[in-house]
Amino acid sequence: MELIHTIPCLVCFGIVLVRVAMPPASAQPTTAASFEVATIKLNRNPPAGARAISLSAALSHGRLAFEAVTLKDLVQQAYDLQRDQISGCPAWCDSDSDRFDVIANAEDPNITKDRVMLMLQALLADRFGLTSHRDTKERSGFGLVVDREVLS
What we know:
The protein has about 150 residues and is an alpha+beta fold. It is built from four helices and eight strands; from the N terminus they run E-E-E-H-E-E-H-E-E-H-E-H. It has one domain. The strands form two sheets. Strands 6-2-1-8 form a four-stranded antiparallel sheet, with no helix packed on it. The protein has a four-stranded antiparallel sheet with strand order 3-7-5-4. A hairpin with a 2-residue loop joins strand 1 and strand 2. The protein is globular. The two termini are about 25 Å apart.
């Protein structure tokens, strides 16, 4: 049995970010949500092999450090998405040739992950011109249903 679900998504300059549960409207990036200092540099010699990318692992004492990540990786971390929830991304935003090193420092060494996500959203808007709005998208899927007669 095929199911069709309508789920909220976030659209960013042609990138469709599909979310199952959207954060409250107050979670939108604001001008007050910014890092004290931030640098984003193109990394032309990324390390070989697969890497796990995690905002929690990259954050230590108010310092956020990502090495050789794609723009899609950054969007994924900023909006707390799974990789398959992002579609419509231009080829360059997930390209091995366009990887970035990001170092950003917050004033508060005890800053929360949620606050850093807002600050990363604002940083992406500032440095990459990322704009977003909320939308919905239909996705098809399958439902696994247990037959109660079999259980009896």
